[in-house]
Amino acid sequence: MKNRSKRYEKASALVQAGKSYGLEEAVGTVKKFPAPKFDPTVTVSFHLGVDPRKSDQMVRGSVALPHGTGKNVRVAVFAAGAAAEAAEAAGAEFVGFEDLIKRVQGGFTDFDVAIATPDAMTEVRKIARVLGPRGLMPNPKTGTVTDDTAKAVKEVKAGRIDYKLDKNGNVSGAVGKASFSEEALLENARAFIDSVVRAKPASAKGNYVRSVTVAASMCPGIPLESGVYTKA
């Protein structure tokens, strides 16, 4: 097993083994971790009691974080005409239709979010094998299939994040950077936790949320008390 760095060991010493933390204490602990040479991303991760193999137990959604993610989000928009012009004006980095689809078919995926107009989706579905595995496929449920491309681009760049259940029953989302104030991280984390809790499928039985962890990049995770998410 690879030895942990001294910085990781110092961070681990701040997390009490076997203890579950309140959200405020967890965020406060993250802020105390030794700082690396970069600004770590703070992530909230859920382990859910649903069956990822059943379509009626899929958990996915989007949430606008009050203080954004701290990340420069690169947006690709599949659209033509006025919708394409609106997307460009709103700040989308890559805008096009058939030409952009050809670029993606050639291996181009240098963007973080893909948005498409409904009438473009017939062609965009042809590159689902490229976009899908990377979590980039536009979807009406997350607001990334829309005629109002300008609004969608602005929301994504302002800090809206999309989340989706993975094959192991986990959902995670970046809720900011370690450099954010404690208040900003708390408000972002609460918004994300509340959204995932509200996304519980009607068919899900038993214990929906099994555990929630807060972590910063290359640092130990901090388990949260159940009250944090049962009261969300």
TrEMBL record:
Instruction: Report the PROSITE patterns cross-referenced here.
Output: RIBOSOMAL_L1 (PS01199)
GO CC, alphabetical: large ribosomal subunit
Q: In Gene Ontology terms, what is a biological process of this protein? A: regulation of translation
Q: Is the keyword Ion transport assigned to this protein?
A: no
Q: Which GO terms label this protein's molecular function in UniProt?
A: rRNA binding; structural constituent of ribosome; tRNA binding
Keywords attached to this entry: Repressor, Ribonucleoprotein, Ribosomal protein, RNA-binding, rRNA-binding, Translation regulation, tRNA-binding
InterPro entries in alphabetical order: Ribosom_uL1_bac-type, Ribosomal_uL1, Ribosomal_uL1-like, Ribosomal_uL1/biogenesis, Ribosomal_uL1_3-a/b-sand, Ribosomal_uL1_CS
As for what it does, the entry says: Binds directly to 23S rRNA. The L1 stalk is quite mobile in the ribosome, and is involved in E site tRNA release.
- Which HAMAP family does this UniProt record tie to the protein? Ribosomal_uL1_B
Task: Summarize subunit and interaction data from the UniProt record for this chain.
Answer: Part of the 50S ribosomal subunit.
PANTHER family documented for this protein:
54S RIBOSOMAL PROTEIN L1, MITOCHONDRIAL (PTHR36427), LARGE RIBOSOMAL SUBUNIT PROTEIN UL1M (PTHR36427:SF3)
Family statement: Belongs to the universal ribosomal protein uL1 family.
Protein known as = Large ribosomal subunit protein uL1
* Species per Swiss-Prot/TrEMBL record: Luteolibacter luteus
Starting at the broadest rank, the lineage of the source organism is: Bacteria, Pseudomonadati, Verrucomicrobiota, Verrucomicrobiia, Verrucomicrobiales
